[in-house]
Amino acid sequence: MGFLKEFKEFAVKGNVMDLAVGVIIGGAFGKIVTSVVNDVIMPVVSAIIGTPDFSNMYLVLKGEAADGAPLAAARGIDGNVVFAYGSFITEVINFTLLALCVFLMVKGINKLRKAEEAAVEEAPAVEEPKAPSQEDLLAEIRDLLKNQK
Asked: CA–CA separation, 138 vs 96, rounded Å?
């Protein structure tokens, strides 16, 4: 089997296409979660802890940094080694929210599936008409023969 033919079979399989759709939707969903974190949750958290945002929370391990300087300025100084823990905190919050959203979606889908399965199981079974027994058919034939005479 040629390489191109083999690749074509792989690429057009349903699982590959499902995976591609999942990756694309996942990327878009990740952007939504990032927006929720940056635009909705982080301002609330920042109001509670009193800092404008986590992205400028850092610690200079080696070198100098001006007090209150943004992270970009601290990183821009030659020789500075900066431990940017605020960015890490933001990413942990993003991941946690994304995992929570996926969990809630899966939980909802499972609940819908269970409800659908229960509805199918509870649906009254359609009774098929009962076929006449051999004795009934013979009796009917006998009656028809009697009526012909």
From this structure: 75
pTM, full prediction: 0.51
Taking alpha carbons only, the member of 100, 82, 128, 84 closest to residue 33 is: 100
Residue type for 70, please? Answer: P
Q: Give CA–CA dist 97/30, Å, rounded.
A: 10
* Interval 41-66: pLDDT, tens: 778 877 887 765 677 788 888 887 76
Domain 3-123 CATH assignment equals 1.10.10.60:
no
How far is residue 35's CA from residue 74's CA, in Å, rounded to a whole number? 26
- Nearest by Cα to 29 from 87, 89, 104: 104
Degrees to nearest 5, angle at CA 97 with 85 and 32: 100
